[in-house]
Structure formats: structure tokens, C-alpha cells
Amino acid sequence: MNGNTGKIINVDLDKGSIETELLPEEYYTGYIGGSGLAAKLFWERGSFSADPLSPEAMLIFMNGPFAGLKLSGASRNSVAGRSPLTGNWGDSSCGGYFAPELRYAGYDGIIIKGKAEKPSMLLIEDEKIHILPAPEYWGKGTDEANRAIKEKYGKNYRTLIIGPAGENLVKYAIILNEGHHAFGRAGFGAVMGSKNLKAIVVKASAKIMKLADPEKYEELRAELNPKIKEALASDVMRENGTAANLEGGVVSGDVPIRNYTSNYWEEMGQELNGGVLTEKYLTKRRACAYCSIACKRVVEVKEGPFAIPEGPGPEYETIAALGSLIGSMDLAAACKAGRVCNDLGIDTISAGGTIAWAMEAFERGDITEKDTGGIKLLWGDMETVIEKILPVIAAREGAFGMLLAEGSLSAAVKTGKDTINYTAQCKGLEVPMHDPRGGGHGLALAYAVSPRGACHVASPMLFLEMGACFYPEIGFEYELEPMTDKDKAETAVIAVALGALENSACFCQFADREIAIPEWVGLFNSVAGYNWDVQDMMMAGTRVFYLKRLINYLFGRTAKDDALTLRMLEPARDGEPEGVVINFEGMKNKFYELMDMDPVKGIPSFKKLVEYGMGAEAKRVWQET
Amino acid sequence: MEYWKDENEPIKAFVMLFERAMADEELTGGMKKVNQLILFDYTENGPNCSFWVDCRNGELKVGPGKPAEPPDMTMSLSADDAHRSWSNKLNPVMAITRRKIRVKGSATGLLKLAPKLKKVAAIYVTVLKDLGWEDKILT
Residue A84 has what pLDDT? Predict the structure, then answer.
């Protein structure tokens, strides 16, 4: 096999057994890699009735075919399975340094089942794979555990680690690579915690990759790396990070404020943007493996109540989620809150979304100090967020910690009083920091139909709407206006296929914006030898999207779950999108029609599935019902 | 050119636009933060079709043609697209993606100006009116 190794590791923590397995080539040509291949494996082998935190649950890590190539943005990894936060299909992507090391060690992925008797770690050194006891790391923050593991094994051993939140089964716990790069969404840190697995560590002895057409790939690489590096967006993100355009986002109404109750806060835009982060707190710029964009930040806050030593700095999502969303425009506080979340092992987006919901509930009197254990929840009170709220969530401490550790949907259902109306989530996954009322109405549709729930990276809809893409080879050569439904369903059809491709190829969305469609095809063919044309490639993307829809269907999700809450659909109260209403149902109906999806079941028709080579899958979902 | 009869017209309008913008306190603050010497290059529409803005060191200057020193950033596009851009009728992200706008040099300054485009467009309308070019105003 080329590009891919074709080999995965099966770990059974119940038995303490480890086996390697070669996967059929058609799994790759059909489902690419990454979250697509993980979906295929879950479809074939996963349990649709198992609790995501039970030993039977599958935890899947999967590379894409480009992991390990010296190509900007190419070396991400996916984690996937049933999300403990949502109960649906979940996947999450992570940059950093794990993916290439796993590839060099000889593997495309790892499937973990069972539960270790005691805290453990998985150590992979080429063909030597061991489950080791790890009680000394259990209970430690990600930073301390990462340092201790590297001290013991070596700084070039690549780590995936959970924090106390994962150990305590917080439903939005993360898995952190190198103490900096996160599998942030959908709660797979809790799945690792439920398996008593504190860490996965990998080291390869050589960097050997077999490619289908090395010469053609080198030609492409020589074109793509400079193109990605010199792109204007790359330049801007290298300089000021992913929050570089936060101020522009405030002007357009894209940045959420106080639990999505406002779309405009000028002073906040001036205080929280990436330029200010650079000026005040940046000490170093960092990159994921082989990436020339270098959007990662290293920061130090030298003084004040939110002082932190030099270490990982916040990205845009963290700055907004632990800033504007909870009513704060204190950048130092966002840096510290992000650092605390990393160390405890909590997703900053879901934490921000859940805390924002709680703050509004407190303001409305829907929850009181009796519910919060005496904690007053006030917009922008970052000291309380950092010192009290995040720690009680991670520890599941008291009734309030237990309430918030389940995420905003569960907390609202438990609280009642129609508080669900002002949650900002879809299918239980908190909405990321792009408000579709200002950012683009197509994003509302993309959030709703995304299999894992509200997600801005499930598809490139955000980029398509802002004009950052031009793909004439697949019919995307028209211009979109953000605050309208015009052409959005049609665009979403393209977007879901492209998004599935990106997440299956495990490519970074910031880098792959610069890759033209023929270059994508060239990469798949020269690296992995898929022998695709444009249509084959787009069909593979759509096939992955369809398969994830089928998985969700077997979890009991149907078309009615492709919905946004009242908060997300009510007219914006201020800013650029003030008063504008999203024609959500219109876009959704049109999308369903174009995708040939059943308006009740929310899955593709039998005929459509057969057309995509999914006859067996079609029989399973259509004959079972 | 769709909007201009010769290469002098756009430069006259754009230089006047920046002269007026420099009298606006809010825009002045934004431009000073850019802290760059910027060349707006429309020479695809004529050899003299360009102007420069110097926002360095807390001062603001504008002039036709090319600057005496090498610019920190050059923005190349057609004079017609520049007209659409200053009228806030051109999506700058889309224009860059489709190579209608080519940027050379550090582009971080551009982002500092982007939130002010609406205000710039309002001033541009007054400039066109004062030049007697109401027919060029894009609605």
C-alpha cells in the first residue's frame, strides 16, 4: 500500500492484548482515511447500543494518507467513535506531532476497546507495543504528565494525554498532544478516561514512507508548500495567529457575545484580537509538523491577576469562548483560562458555551446560588471562571460541577424552565465561535446537518461564504453573500463533500484553502495511488458524509435532529445582522432534496446509497426499518 | 476601464479620498496602527496609475505615483476593482482568492483597515460627488 501503511493496531484493554491488522485497500479508496475510515471501521465493528463510556465502546485514532509528508497542513490525526457528549457519531481532529510519528512507526491508526484494570498508558515503539501501568501520571494535569513522560522516555516521544477532566469523565474532555495541540471536540478525553488510559506515547526509529509516484508528489510539494506559505491568510495567521481577524469578525457580526445575545461589541474587538495578543503576550510562534503557516502561539502574561508563565497560547476559538461569549474582553484572562482548560483537559468551546448558558440562566433566575453551590455567575467575572467554575467542572465537584460537566444541553434539560431555548448547541455539541446570523446563513445549515453537531470544521462552509475558496472544477465559481440563503443549500452540497475529504485526509483547513481541486486529486493519486479523477474524489467525500449520517441514524438520530435552537435562529439584536432572520427550514429542505435524503429519516435514499457503492449499507438501514 | 475615462481619474479620486480620511479621527487612528508604506498599484490600467499612502511613524501622507522608498506592502488590482473596493462593493477576501487583488508584503495592516471600509466608502461617495462624478457612485 502507498501513502497509507494499511496497518492498524487493535488494543483490547480488558484482555491486555495487542494485535496488528492489515485493512483492505478498498476501505481506503472508499473512505480515504482519518474520520472517514474511522466511520467505516465503526460501521463494521462498533456497537450501536454501547454507552460511549463503557468498556465496549470503540475509541479510534486514524491518520490520513498524507501524515508524515513534509507538506504544510498535511499531518493531522482524527479521533472518532460515539461521542459521550452527544451520544452521536463524534470525531475530532488534532494537529501537532502525533500523526507523523504514528505513520513512521508503521501504522495508520489505533482501535482501543475494553477498560484497563488500573491507570495505564499505551507505548508504541515501531513494532514493540506495550500496555504499561501508569499510576504515577493519573490525577496529574496534562502539562505535568507530559513533562514527566518526556523526561522518562525522551523529548521526541510524541504524547497524547488526558487531564483530570478526562479521568473524571467530563463529557467534553479533550486529548492533548505535546501539551499544546488538542483533539478538542466531542469528549473523547472522557472515553480515554473511561478506559483508564492516561496516555498514548509513540516513537518511530526511522522516517520511511512509500509513495505511489514520488516524482509527481515532489513536483506537487514544490508547488504547494510555497503557495501555502506565501498565501495572504497564512501570512496574517503567522503574524497574529488565528484571532488575527477577530476585530473584522466583530464588525460583520460573526463573533458571539454573551451567549449569543449580541453581535456587536467594538471595544471587545479592539482588546481581544490577535494583534493585541502579539503585542502584549506573544513570546514565540509555533507550528504543527512540517507546517509553514505557524499559527500556534506561545504566550506569557508577566503580571496582574491572570499572570501565567510562558507556554501554549490561545487560538481564536478559545479567546472568543473564554472571552466575548462569557462577557469578558480581558485577553490576559482568556490566556489563563485557556491554559487552565488545557491543563485540566477541557474543551474550551464547550466549556465556554456551557458556562455562557449558566451565566444567562443565573441572570434570568433560572438557576440560583442554591444550584451553583454559592457561586455567583456574572458576565465577565473571569476570576470566578478560572478559580471556581473550571475546577469544579473538571473535578465534577458538587451538584454544580456535575451539572456543567455534562454540557449545556444536558444541563438545560435537567434545569428545565425552557432554558434549552437559549442553549447554543446542535445535537448536543456547543456551537463554535462563529455566529451564522452574522458570519453567514449557510453556516447555520452546515452546523445543523453536520453529523457530529454544530461544527465549523466539518465543512468549509465558513470559508466558502466569506469568499476564501474558488473551485470552478466542481462548480463553485459563483459569489456568495453572507446574510442570505441564496445558493447556500447548493453550496452546502459541495461543502459537506469537501469537509469530509479534508477530515478524512486529515488536512488542516487553513492550509488546504490554497490547494486547487486538481492538486487535491494529484495528491491522492501520487501519494496513495487511489487513481481518482475529480468525480471519484468528490464521491468519496460525499460517501463519507452519507456513512456518518447512517451511523447517526442507527443511534436514533433523524431529520428532526438537524435543528438549531431558538437562540441561534432568533433575529440578531444588534450589529451588522440586526433584525435579519435566517431561512433555516428553506435551506434545509433544499439541501435534503439535493442530497436525496429522506425528510423524516434524515438518511440518503436506498437508490442514492447504491449509486455511491453503499449497497450493503443501504440494506442495513432501509431493511431494518 | 468601465468607470474611468483615463488613468488620471481614479488616482485623483483615491488621493482625495485618503486626504479626507486623514482628517477623520477614527480612520486616522486605524491607519496609524497599520504603520506601513503602502503602494496601491493599478498600473495594469496605465503606467502612472498608482498612488501611495505612508502610515509609518505616527504620520500620514498620501501622494500619486510610486513612493520614493520601497513599499512595505503593494496591493495590485485594476482601477475598476479599486473603485468597487473603495465603494465597499467588492468582497476583498473573494477578490484576493480569485487573484483580482494581488498582495505583496506583510498583509497584517490590511486587517486593521478592513473594519473601517464602510466608513471609507461613505467618504468616497462625498469625494465622487464633489468631483462631479455622481454617475460613478455605486449603489
Answer: 98
Q: In A169-202, which positions are buried (b, 16+ CB within 10 angstroms) versus exposed (e)?
A: bbbbbbbbbbbbbbbbbbbbbbbbbbbbbbbbbb
Strands of A197-203's sheet in order across? A128-133, A120-125, A197-203, A158-161, A175-177, A181-183
Inter-chain residue contact B97 with A269, CB threshold 8 Å: no
Of A239, A275, A469, the CB nearest to B106: A239
pLDDT given at position B30: 84
Residues A195/A121, Cβ–Cβ less than 8 Å: no
Question: Which CATH code for domain A7-203?
Answer: 3.60.9.10
C-alpha cell at position B31: 491607519
- A235 to chain B nearest CA, in Å? 7
Mark yes or no for CB contact B91/A236 under 8 Å.
Answer: no
How confident is residue B109, by pLDDT bands cut at 50, 70 and 90? confident
A273-295 residue pLDDT tens = 999 999 999 999 999 999 999 99
- Amino acid making up residue A528: A
| Reported pTM | 0.96
- Site of grid cell 515532489: A218
Q: Which of B111, B117, B118 to mutate to test the interface with A (most CBs of A within 10 A)?
A: B111
Q: What is the pLDDT of residue A625?
A: 53
The radius of gyration of chain A's CA atoms, rounded to the nearest angstrom, is 22
Q: What is the CATH number of domain B8-129?
A: 3.30.1050.10
Span A5-19, pLDDT tens digits = 999 999 999 999 999
pLDDT of residue B107: 82
* pLDDT of B26: 85
Residue that is written with C-alpha cell 441572570 in the block: A363
Contact yes or no for A232 and B112 at CB 8 A: no
In angstroms, the CA A165 to CA A391 distance is 9
- For A241, nearest residue in chain B (alpha carbons): B108
Question: What ipTM was estimated for this complex?
Answer: 0.87
**B88 vs A456: CA distance, rounded Å:** 27
Judge: A235–B94 Cβ closer than 8 Å, yes or no. Answer: no
Arithmetic mean of pLDDT over chain B: 93
> CA-CA distance, A571 to A578, in Å (whole number)?
7
All cell numbers assigned to A52: 460511549
Cell representation of residue B57: 511613524
> Which SS3 state, helix, strand or coil, does residue A559 take?
helix
Domain ranges of chain A: 7-203, 240-429, 440-513+533-623
Residue among A239, A269, A470 minimizing CB distance to B108: A239
The minimum CA-CA distance between A271 and chain B, rounded to whole Å, is 13
Say whether pLDDT at A585 is over 60: yes
CB contact under 8 A, B114 and A245: yes
Q: How confident is the model at residue B113 (pLDDT cuts 50, 70, 90)?
A: confident
Q: Are A64 and A504 in contact (CB under 8 A)?
A: yes
Helix pair angle (A232-240, A214-230), 10° resolution: 60
CATH of domain A440-513+533-623: 1.10.599.10
What pLDDT is recorded for position A36?
Answer: 98
How many CA atoms lie less than 13 Å away from A141 in the CB half-sphere?
A: 12
Query: Looking at beta carbons, which residues of chain A come within 8 Å of B85?
Result: none
Nine-digit cell at B124? 468616497
The reply to whether residue B111 touches residue A247, judged by beta carbons under 8 angstroms, is yes
pLDDT single digits (tens) A345-392: 999 999 999 999 999 999 999 999 999 999 999 999 999 999 999 999
For chain B, give every domain's residue range.
8-129
Write the class of the CATH domain A240-429.
mainly alpha
pLDDT range class, residue A624, cuts 50, 70, 90 = low
Give the cell for residue A599: 425528510
CB–CB contact A470 B98 (8 Å)? yes
